[in-house]
Every structure is written in structure tokens, then in C-alpha cells.
Amino acid sequence: MGGGEGKIDAPEGTKQYQLRKYAEATLGSGNLRAAVVLPEGEDLNEWLAVHTVDFFNHLNMLYGTVTEFCTPEECPVMTAGPRFEYFWEDGVKYKRPTKLSAPDYVDALMNWAQGILDDETIFPNKIGVPFHRNFRETVKTIMRRLFRIYGHLYSNHFDQICALGIEAHLNTSYRHFYLFITEFDLVDKKELAPLDDLNVAIAREDASR
Questions:
Q1: Between these two residues, 7 and 36, which has the higher pLDDT value?
Q2: Smallest Cα–Cα separation from 37: which of 29, 46, 47?
Q3: Predicted TM-score (pTM) of this structure
């Protein structure tokens, strides 16, 4: 799987665990717009943290379903359709933008994200531990990069996802992601251009509710 480290769980009894249970209950109502709104009296950074971990887990699972199709031969470049190509840079192993195959790009991205999510100085698990002052910027960077995996799945592997019968899971996951990042202005609109048609449809459907 892209990242290979598996699912990240919030320890039971922590603030993140309680917020995740709240979010899951709201999600169960089928109203994704309500599910992304910050609950009254809750800390914004806690809410961002819980959802960042959840979207990471969703994408790790969704991408894992297409790894047999997303190979260096089939996807030699990380793209989201013919007009959008992504280069990887993490400041450590890849100090400048580097062209990678899609599976190598996703693997690098998920391992990079996992390292941040596991770092308790950035994503504290204990109640009362303050978030880093640059926390929101970190979340924005993670979300911007996670979007690229959604873009690749839709643009390059949607037929295979439909053949596997899991397009409803992908659609719900992305709709939740899109409503969340727009609710908190986490990703620049120009970055979302590869899925513009889908984004317009989601926004229109949401406005009609």
C-alpha cells in the first residue's frame, strides 16, 4: 500500500478519539456538510488534526485497492489527467522537485505524511498539549498533497475503481474531503483544478440541500 505503515488510530480516551466518535456519528447521518463544521466549543486545531488523520487513512486504503494497476509501467509520472503533473520534494531525500512514477510518488508522500502525523510535537495526542504555532500551515501542506492522490485516482484509475465496485467509497471520501478543505480554506482553488467539474457538482449539490 502507498505508505505501507497502515492505519493511524487515536488512542481511546484522548480528545482526538472523542472528536472522531463525534465526527463518525455526524457522518452516519449522511449530511457531510454538517459533518465538517467545527462543533461548538471545540478547538479548531484538534478538529483539523482528527480529519487530517482520517483523510490520510481513507486515502491509504483507497489507493491500496489500485496498487496492482498503478505501476511504474502504467503510471510512469504522477499526474491528475493530461494537464497536471506533480514532482516530489521533501527537503530531505528529494531536495529539489523530482519526477517520480505515480506509485513511487504516492509512497514518498504517504511516508512523509506518516512521519508528520506520528510526530507528537506536531500532532500531539495528549489533552492539553499545545499545537505548534505553524500547525495550520502544516495541515494545509498535507491536504494539498493528499488532494493529488484523489486527483490521480479519479483521472487515471476510475474505471478500475468502478470495476472493483468501490466508486461510492471514493466519491464519499472525496466529497467529505472537498467540503472539509473548503470549509476551512485549506487548499488554494488553483490546486483543485484537476477535479474542477467534480468540485462544481459537489458545491452545487451541497447548495441545493
A1: 36
A2: 47
A3: 0.86
